[in-house]
Specification:
Number of domains: 2
Number of strands: 8
Number of helices: 7
Helix content: 25-40%
Structural class: alpha+beta
Largest sheet: 6 strands, antiparallel
Order of helices and strands: HHHEEHEHEEHEHEE
Length: 248
Amino acid sequence: MKDARPIQPLDRNDPAPLYMQVRRHILNLIENGRQPLNSKLSSERELVELLGVSRITVRQALKDLEHDGYIASHPGKGFYVTGGKTKPFELDLLKSFTSTAITTNRKPGSRLIEGWVGKADREITRPLFLPDGADVVYLRRLRFLDDVPVTVQEDWLSPATAPGLLDLDWSSGNRSLYGELRERYSVIPVRGETIVSARLLTSEEVKLLQVEPPAAALVIDQIAYDTDNRPVNLSVSVTLHPQVLSQA
């Protein structure tokens, strides 16, 4: 990377996760010709020092860029620019709603419907490897794409996984659950057990998603696990379109 100065400095107040800001920084260098085709990127260590983020943040950004075809890894040599490809906004069950929206040049948004910490039924605690009647953290949010409501999402987590999670402002704008887990708690989902089904929206969901009844929706039930095979979160997402991402 010949010119290592960032086009846009990382903004800690930006609702986008830090790894997405790193991704944007590198992508800007590629698209503006400052990082030409077949050129070698700076090393992980150099990017960490340049951008003031953790190594795990840089690795996630590079992993995303490699997945989208913008860069390729050459073992023992580093990452090289390969050109990139255009991807639709598609279902990627372990990638957050926010990051997928940003990747596909869509504007993510979120509004808190309900959030609390309290005792949960066995159908919730058991998948999270918690005792019957244990406390869980619960989030229910309305997710937006380009200011249009598209998904009603519920998440349950162990309080030990993300202490103080509800102290964050979930009330407006956009905040990524997976982004917070990654950046604030160093928790990274790497695999999931997923069931996808379809049903009609309830009357409440029709009102939240601003559609005319009857309206069908895709329902994604998922348990995500981290690198140590521990449950990260249990989620249920009700979305209007099969190409809308379920995880945030």
